[in-house]
Design goal:
This protein is mainly α. It is about 40% helix and about 5% strand. The chain is globular.
């Protein structure tokens, strides 16, 4: 019921979202399942309905590479890349539209962005060895400071160059928080790694008391 309400509201706001009643090929992806497991920290059961809202984070440079080894040995020529992902600006505006719809709904809703930040295996400029630390730090500083203009104005080309494709989920979240007038998060932590594949961020925006 809530998913149909949200979909209807976004379509009426001229965001051409698609929807399905069940997954076509598999159960929910790990981004959604891991979030539910994290929220069910004590493993007592997660009793709240979940609406998985998928964003095309693959864009032009992920699926077409057919895996990590293929991308190293035979990178796909620029003129043969897949169609692009939606722009950060569009994702930001989508998040804002989503909370406008949900704010008028009869439900209490938690908006969750689930993803790692830059990924080493997508960052060619670093020879696929480590994530794009400075690019991640820049957006994290903007998150901490409530600098939503930096988020909304980031170009898609910069996202792809820095292996930050999954961050498109966070652009939706930033748009939502900007729309709600949340200046800064209640808690934010940046976990940087040059050993693991990606940097991690945890941010919490608590509801008004």
């Amino acid at each position: 019921e809530g998913a149909k309400y949200l979909t209807r509201g976004l379509l009426e706001a001229e965001f051409d979202v698609s929807y399905a009643y069940e997954p076509l090929h598999a159960d929910l992806g790990h981004a959604f399942l891991n979030s539910a497991l994290f929220l069910d920290w004590d493993r007592t059961g997660f009793e709240y309905p979940v609406v998985p809202f998928q964003v095309n984070c693959y864009g032009s440079r992920v699926i077409c590479q057919k895996g990590y080894k293929e991308s190293l040995e035979n990178p796909v020529p620029e003129d043969q890349l897949d169609p692009p992902a939606p722009s950060p600006k569009r994702c930001f505006d989508l998040g804002a539209a989503a909370v406008r719809v949900l704010r008028d709904s009869p439900w209490r809703v938690a908006v969750v962005a689930s993803s790692s930040w830059s990924h080493a295996f997508l960052t060619r400029k670093n020879y696929f060895l480590h994530p794009a630390h400075e690019a991640d730090r820049r957006l994290f500083r903007a998150l901490e400071e409530g600098d939503y203009a930096t988020w909304r104005d980031t170009p898609l080309a910069e996202i792809e160059e820095n292996g930050q494709q999954e961050l498109l989920n966070w652009f939706c979240l930033m748009g939502a928080m900007a729309e709600l007038g949340r200046d800064t998060p209640d808690h934010a932590e940046f976990i940087e790694s040059s050993i693991m594949n990606s940097n991690k961020v945890i941010a919490v925006y608590r509801p008004p008391s």
